[in-house]
Amino acid sequence: MLEVRNLSARWDGFAIDDISFSVAAGDYFVLLGPSGGGKTLVLEILAGLHPATGGTVLLDGREITGSRIQDRDLALVYQDRALFPHLTVHKNIAYGLAAQGVTRSKRLDRAAELAGQVGVAELLHRRPGTLSGGEAQRVALARALAREPKLLLLDEPLSALDIRAREKLRALLRQLHRAGNTIIHVTHDFEEAVSLASHVAIMAEGRIIQMGTRDEVFVEPRSRFVARFTGVDNFIEGEVTEAHDSSATFVADKATFQLAGAGFVGRGYLLFRRRDLEVHRQAPSPSPANLFTGRVVDLAPTRSGLEVRLDAQGLTLVAHVPRRQVAALELELGMEVYAVLREGAGRVVKA
User: Fold this and answer.
1) Which of 116, 174, 198, 244 is deepest in the core (most CB within 10 A)?
2) Which residues are paired to 242 by β-bridges?
3) Model-level pTM?
4) For residue 35, how far is the Cα from the chain centroid?
5) Strands of the sheet with 336-341, listed across from one edge
């Protein structure tokens, strides 16, 4: 459907270079990365709001790199919604249909239909200044969908919303995707990408670092940057010294890990999430396979418990202590503790 080849551009001293990706019909493609990485600039080039200095953009095989905005058959929704404050919700949604020559009565009928689909049917008479952030974003989505674009472009659509509104909007976006809409969604939020994406591209400093299906990128990050950004807190460089059908030995500095398997011998990275590392005040008995001693160097409360950073046998390890265990452990900075990698956890990728 959409093919981007070797796209380059410059804007206010910032550059994107050699950006290439494709989006098939029905995909939910997420551009994920830190702020200032060039994600929004890519969307604006696709939408025709910013010129490319190099590369090609094709939509259904037709080159649109230099096409006018109105000839691209794309719709862009910004995080600030950009609704017309003097128009009602009804007229905001219908606005884009006038340029297509749709009659007034049909425009308003279509707007009412879309308002029902996105959950704002009871707000048609209201003006944008009276809406909550979540309601306004729903109206912006309906306005974008009114012209039935081939591709919907979303720039941080949930970032300005509170937690409850974000959850509701995620559900709506999944619904729109299931209905057959093809979507490119820019965000810096890993959880948002996990919740919505079928395909992901990690972008930073004007370049795509890694790209693939959601599982390919999130399960097998190929760099420390991608691992950290996709929620893999423990990314350890070392070497697989033994590998058998169902077991492997991984050595990193002064620590040795016994794993379920690796598939190769040589340099690699051991990956595991903080929830897979248990923290104990006393050494468990019988002694588990991957038991390490460590010192607490940082404690950070989270919504679900406590993040614990350990200096353990030459490694920095990050663990998660569930809320129900926090009081019993009574952890303090500098305390000596035991860390256990859960059985079956930990995966090794080649360096």
Assistant:
1) 198
2) 249
3) 0.82
4) 12
5) 277-280, 336-341, 291-302, 305-312, 315-322
pLDDT single digits (tens) 144-193: 998 889 999 999 988 878 888 889 889 999 999 999 999 999 999 988 99
User: Which amino acid belongs to residue 211?
Assistant: M
52-89 pLDDT, tens digit per residue, is 999 999 999 999 998 888 888 899 998 776 888 999 99
Spatial distance between the Cα atoms of 190 and 227, rounded to a whole number of angstroms: 11
Please, what is the Cα angle at 323 between 304 and 215, to 5 degrees? 40
